[in-house]
Specification:
By secondary structure, the protein is an alpha/beta fold. Helix content is 31%, strand content 22%. The chain contains 16 helices and 22 strands. Strands 1, 2, 3, 4, 5, 19, 20, 21 and 22 form a 9-stranded mixed sheet that branches. An 8-stranded parallel sheet has the order 6-7-8-9-10-11-12-18, with helices on both faces. Helix 9 links the parallel strand 11 and strand 12. Helix 5 crosses helix 6 and helix 8 runs parallel beside helix 9. The mean pLDDT is 96.
């Protein structure tokens, strides 16, 4: 007798194949059978009218501490996400002292303490969230720990200290190293520093993921640097949130995609991820630097979270400047003085570029949501995967639904080394999402972002029912996923 049989569903295997009609059986944390399932089950679920797919893998998250503080992870699980890759943009979960200091802008709540990435993954195991968590090592946290905010090359001892942090993370099972080259202190690193650190991963299956130096008019040089780091270090490359920011850069993605194609043609393992919106989100201090807005005007920068000033949330810096009776740079300086961790939504991309990047075969899906739950976070935190499935695949016909599912299941699983997830087959772990392909859609807006998508029927994480009828059940069955050698 099986634990669960989901009957009469359209089965999308995650590999991009056309769906088949049939059943799925789950025993414990594992898929037991796919297709025509005979026999009985402790629980039989009628899936008629629904599609079923592997659970979605969010390859670009900042949920390192959210997974500890908000273990229900409702903003992800209600959208079908079953695995989160944390530690992106150079902001890792260790060393703890600098990691939690960097995280305060999003999470002022007290955090438990852990030692290194081994301790972080042990924390996830001992107090599991609703989703699986796998970690990237943050270059920014490693550099901050080794040499503070120094705007120079590291000394030999400082580089050795960074290498020790990376080595500890790799030994703990981290899936790669990430950089955030527009943020302090990562932006002070030269290419060779990144090559030397990434080279520690050569031959072990870990990858280099990067928020590049310039996603505006310097996009092509930044993509070339990312590829060069991977090529010289001998490791795979993941380009984070591939886009062209700012009107002056619109259209450059055609050439940046060609750079990726050329690298792949030379045998390099280079891919990218993308969120399906024309607005991004980051910290205000990343877009207002040294007294000026460095790639977009203040009317495009909207305050997303300002814990002591919720009345600012949802207003642009330009509008706040009018209210404050000053110019925009003065307003930004006041906001940062009173709310140094303020986060923003930044409207900088064009729809044509979003579509060009999304339809390209190098692109998988990642939300890049900032879990600032007290404010007005970017709606991508909740709706990324439903938006790709409903808006872009079903309504806009950018690609078939089976291909959209592949971009968020087997494709990222292969890139990040999850050999037993991302596909529906006997023996794979039972991370599963069922949804109505005719109605699935994101619901959040920039004015009212904290809304789960429509159309998600059920989510199973390691065989446990985590979402029923679109609502989280409270099950906390996620696991720490470690890189396998």
């Amino acid at each position: 007798m099986h634990d669960v049989i989901i009957r009469d569903v359209s089965i999308y295997d995650g590999l991009g194949n056309a769906p088949i009609h049939g059943d799925i059986a789950i025993d414990g944390d594992t898929i037991a059978s796919v297709g025509l399932v005979t026999g009985s089950a402790k629980e039989s679920v009628d899936g008629s009218g629904l599609a079923i797919a592997p659970g979605f893998i969010d390859v670009h998250t900042h949920d390192d501490f959210a997974a500890v503080l908000y273990r229900d992870m409702s903003f992800k699980i209600a959208g079908g996400v079953t695995t989160c890759v944390v530690g992106n943009c150079g902001m890792g979960a260790a060393p703890w002292a600098v990691a939690q200091a960097m995280a305060r802008s999003m999470h002022p709540e007290p955090l438990p303490e852990w030692q290194g990435y081994r301790g972080y993954l042990a924390q996830i195991e001992s107090q599991p969230p609703a989703v699986n968590v796998t970690a990237l090592i943050g270059h920014g946290t490693a550099r901050l720990s080794a040499m503070g905010m120094e705007a120079r090359e590291p000394s030999g001892a400082e580089l050795a200290a960074m290498k020790d942090i990376v080595a500890e993370g790799l030994e703990a099972g981290a899936v790669g190293l990430s950089s955030g080259l527009i943020y302090d202190p990562g932006r002070h690193a030269r290419t060779q520093e990144l090559v030397e650190l990434a080279a520690l991963m050569r031959g072990i299956g870990a990858l280099y993921a990067t928020h590049m130096r310039d996603e505006g008019t310097g996009l092509l040089e930044s993509v070339a640097e990312a590829i060069a780091i991977g090529e010289q270090a001998g490791v795979p490359v993941q380009i984070s949130h591939h886009k062209a920011s700012g009107r002056a850069a619109w259209g450059l993605v055609t050439q940046s995609l060609a750079l990726i194609e050329n690298a792949q043609g030379r045998g390099l393992d280079v891919h990218a991820d993308q969120y399906p919106y024309t607005a991004g989100s980051t910290i205000l201090s990343a877009v207002f630097r040294e007294g000026s807005f460095w790639f977009t005007p203040p009317e495009n920068i909207v305050i997303a979270s300002a814990r002591s000033h919720p009345e600012w949330e949802g207003s642009s810096v330009a509008a706040l400047a009018q209210q404050m009776g000053c110019d925009a740079p003065q307003a930004a300086m006041r906001i940062l003085a009173e709310e140094p961790g303020a986060t923003v939504v930044v409207h900088t991309m064009c729809e044509e570029d979003v579509r060009t990047v999304m339809r390209h075969p190098s692109t998988m899906i990642g939300s890049d949501g900032l879990p600032t739950l007290a404010g007005k976070p970017h709606p991508r935190l909740y709706g990324t995967f439903a938006r790709v499935l409903g808006h872009y695949a079903r309504d806009e016909h950018l690609f078939p639904l089976a291909e959209a599912i592949r971009r968020m299941t087997s494709f990222p699983a292969a890139k990040f080394g999850f050999t037993d997830r991302g596909v529906l087959r006997a023996g794979a772990k039972a991370d599963v999402v069922s949804f109505d392909a005719n109605t699935i859609i994101d619901c959040g807006t920039f004015e009212n972002p904290k809304q789960p998508p429509k159309g998600i029927a059920a989510v199973y994480v390691n065989g446990a029912l985590t979402v029923r009828d679109g609502k989280p059940t409270g099950a906390l069955s996620g696991r720490a996923l470690r890189r396998s050698n």
